[in-house]
Amino acid sequence: MADSSTLQNITGTILLAGAGKMGGAMLTGWLSGGLDPRRVAVVDPHISPEITALAAKGVALNPDVTTVGTVETLVVAVKPQMFREAGAKLKSFVSDKTSVVSIMAGTTIASLAEVCGGAVVRAMPNTPAAIGRGITVAVAAKNVSAAQRAVADALLRATGSVEWVDDESLMDAVTAVSGSGPAYVFLLAEELARAGVEAGLPEPLATRLARETVAGSGELLHQSELPSSTLRQNVTSPGGTTAAALGVLMAEPGLRDLMIRAIAAATKRSKELAN
């Protein structure tokens, strides 16, 4: 989670552009981690009642560039397709001392620097960030200072774990694996339930069994230090029911081949969408 000491030591303004689900989750994490609400400003044409309520705590809503103060970090959480239009307006908030942290999929460091300016950190979170269990991968431009990177790291950790890479080209595969990954897990729960119905279970029971099994297994994976392969083997008795099912899933071509092709397709599409 967020480094509260770093959050508490922030002296400039953190400007959040876009306070939707992901931006809102980050903001909640920042404030829970000890960031002074008076250090936060939000720019969004559609402020939700939940965000509006934070104004009473000192969060500035849609401030003018002349009143916002020195923006230490601009966090861009708008939809990628809106970035060109929104980014041009955000540029007026950016000075040569501002770092720009983007959580937009498919938006390169070069594009961010061109539209917004500043020292750019490109990050890819995922939707479990909404419950503080996300994972984010980030890459920093060469002009990002150690201090700016530390602040970016603290802000991103407000919604879960953070990994840093040095090669921006890895971000397309990151998007395919962790950015899009929750959808694959949700699909697994869907299809596990559907298969349970086909095996004769009532649909409500099959759905509950599938959801709780996926959620519980994920939590076990989270808490255990064992490799996922070992956890799988621990469930699998030789010649038993699990082994019979895995014989189907692990056959050639099986789940491994399907997942490789799925990740390749998502990676390819991420590259195509990059701007």
TrEMBL record:
Family annotation (Gene3D superfamilies): NAD(P)-binding Rossmann-like Domain, ProC C-terminal domain-like
InterPro entries: 6-PGluconate_DH-like_C_sf (IPR008927), NAD(P)-bd_dom_sf (IPR036291), P5C_Rdtase_cat_N (IPR028939), P5CR_dimer (IPR029036), Pyrroline-COOH_reductase (IPR000304)
Catalytically driven reaction(s): L-proline + NAD(+) = (S)-1-pyrroline-5-carboxylate + NADH + 2 H(+); L-proline + NADP(+) = (S)-1-pyrroline-5-carboxylate + NADPH + 2 H(+)
Listed EC numbers: 1.5.1.2
Transmembrane segments: none
Class of the enzyme per the UniProt entry, highest EC level: oxidoreductase
Cited function: Catalyzes the reduction of 1-pyrroline-5-carboxylate (PCA) to L-proline.
Official protein name in the record: Pyrroline-5-carboxylate reductase
Species in which this protein is naturally found: Bradyrhizobium ottawaense
